[in-house]
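Appendix B, Record 12. Input sequence as logged:
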Amino acid sequence: MTPGRRARIRPAFFWGGRNLPWWIAGTSMVATTFAADTPLLVTELVANYGVSGNWLWWNGLIGGMITTFFFARLWRRANILTDVALIELRYGTGPAARFLRGFKAVYLGVLLNSVIIAWVNIALGKLLMGFFEVPPQHLGWYYLLAMLLVGVYSGLSGLLGVAMTDFVQFITAMLGTVVLAFLVVNSEKIGGLAGLKAALPAQTFQFWPQIDFSGEGLLQTSQVLVISGATFLSYIGFQWWASWYPGAEPGGGGYVAQRMMSTPREKDALKATLLFQVMHYAVRPLPWILVGLASVVLYPELPEKEKGLGYVFAMRDFLPDGWRGLLLAAFLAAYMSTISTQLNWGSSYLIHDLYQRFVHPQASERQLVLFSRLSTLVLIVCAWGVTTQMQTLEGAFRFMVNAGAGLGAVLMLRWYWWRINAWSELSATFAPLIAYSVALFAWKWDDTSAFFLSIGFTTLVWLLITFLTRPVPMAQLRIFCQQVAPTGFWHPVWRDLGQAPPVAQTGGLLGASLGALLMAFGALFTAGALLF
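Logged structural output:
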């Protein structure tokens, strides 16, 4: 059956037939996060803060390994179409759960999804300006055309087609970035790794930042990242579990959960997620980091907010014609991969969690798939509008991290504690938006202080709401337990079922998570030690 024919069947359209090989599903996760924006963001961080600036996102590997071993199997057992559909499986169909499901379908599928697509568009714009000298005032039309072209094949093929093209596009993009790093570093202007190390301060190459316990926030000195103790603590101790971020959701979610649920077995979901974590954090960034460091030497005149352009200029100036065309094609492929996934993911929310659930429950399969393609157009228009308002890639990243600070704990605990209810998740969704906005705009706090306030305020709010509201009805908790077989604090439910709870393997799962974490970070730091 071709991808186009499978797309006419709704579960296959969003699940790929639930038969994706684990290596295809895992590579598709990596490819989705390998958009044109990612090398530019890494270049921006490296140019401004040194290699250790990447801790802004490297900390996500901690939560990623927890997600792999503690949650991937649970997502596969849930047997749902989207991660938002988990809400009614877990909390029932009461007013709070229904509102939460509809709200998150729009909030995640349209609003935050538009922000994600917008920053990918911003990177595409830098590529077009650097390569083709497209005037900034004309970029909007290029964004719209590019999204429409991707929307056509995304809407026709569904997840199977998206995942298969992701695999090819990722291989192409990785090959191109490795070649670029080799050519730039070994160019006459750089003089190899020895020349690169001679041209920059030694601290620039450190994988660990310098920590100043008397300072605040991010401090830059001669291309060296110096951060306050509080900021580093937020990276290592809080951000990975507290903040919702696409591709690094605490406990899984979004397109990562979609790929988990598209695999045939639980062990395949685990292997796919593990492959994603290792490739995403330990393998893929190294060639980007090399080019980012070289760009500091090659293009020192670039302003701080435009440092990401150094990657584009390196492509333009150091690749021979054939390779330049290949890498440009690779970047366009990466752009298409991410946008197609975001459109497929967002439309899955709008069709399954909004339209079919609340607007037209009796819609035919043909109507559902047709509406999903129409919803793709809505997403394109919304993302186009957001793109015109976005300033920097790093700024967008920080907004995403802080806007969900404190929500992550609920997203993880809902699998392991029976007392969490829909009101818990609702309050944890709104509280950080309120706290962060007040701290940043009314009180003029820095990002780190606002982040900690958001976590503390959100945690206090959702805990109070949880104990002030009724638990999920026992009948619904029984359904969830029988389907997902969770471990943890579910003893009242298992007792009501008259069954012994599943044997918890917490020690083994923690050991596996820690071992995999050390393996991935060890590979990354070993490669860094060999290079620098």
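The chain has one domain: 3-395.
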